[in-house]
Amino acid sequence: MQTDIQKPKGLGVFRYKEDRWPVAIILMLTVIDFVLYFTVDDLLQLSAYYLLMIIPKGTICAWNHHHQHLFTFRNNALNRSLEFFYALHTGVTTHLWRLHHVLGHHLNFLDQEKDESRWMRKDGSKMGVIEYTWDVAITAYPRGYTVGKRHPKQLKPFLIYSLITFLVVALLVWYKPVPALLLFVLPMITSLLFTAYVTYEHHSGLDTENEFEASYNNLNPMFNRLTGNLGYHTAHHHKQGVHWSRLPELHASIADKIPEYLYQKSIITRTLLRG
């Protein structure tokens, strides 16, 4: 039986009505990308747009993450289509985060020998943010595949739709190389690196077996509006299947278990708000 926190309140094809606006905005950005792809060839203009969109497209990674935890639509075809557009923005294809993150990191984040997003070196020392960023980004696909070998039903769509995505991107590059590189290829790479960069602060340095002491939290309203309440990170790890819109409620129910030192401003908050 679902709790009140978990109970879906869908609207038509959406499982939760709160997903309507995030999806609409992300699809609007996708339309803009394709309009520019077919109409603009100027290197300077496309470069300026690429730089302008680094943080917005990086923020989309949070919504792709939420989708991989709890699919947005009731219909599988719609979910696969949305994942294709997410991949063009974030560099993360269908089921990659479902394998690497949901079936990997969330089960192993208290064990730095197994964690797919581990922040600890083999000698037990803490990685710096740049080392962690490169390590997590470069190993994302191999580690996702490794987890997938234990979950073949999840691995199959990952392989199929990743192949489709990269073939489409290759066709886009073949047809119009410069727009494709600046509108799709580079943003995919940058967003994957951006994702790894901002996740460094989620757990780094917290070597503990207590789940309530293993995640940093950020309750800044703007940060959570942009990321779908990703700042309620302890709650997210406590019950990873809870929809992002219900995380503040879940956080309130466990807040007394979270030490004060685990509340901080995030890298992205400092970047966006200069807090």
TrEMBL record:
Q: Extract the signal peptide range.
A: none
Give the protein's recorded name.
Answer: Fatty acid desaturase
The root-end lineage is: Bacteria, Pseudomonadati, Pseudomonadota, Gammaproteobacteria, Oceanospirillales
Start and end of every Fatty acid desaturase domain?
Answer: 50-262
Concerning InterPro entries, the annotation shows: FA_desaturase_dom
**Which UniProt keywords are listed?**
Membrane, Transmembrane, Transmembrane helix
Native species of this protein? Answer: Amphritea balenae
| Pfam families documented for this protein | FA_desaturase
GO terms under biological process: lipid metabolic process
Transmembrane stretches in the record are 21-40, 46-64, 158-175, 181-200
- For whether the record's keyword set contains Transmembrane, the answer is yes
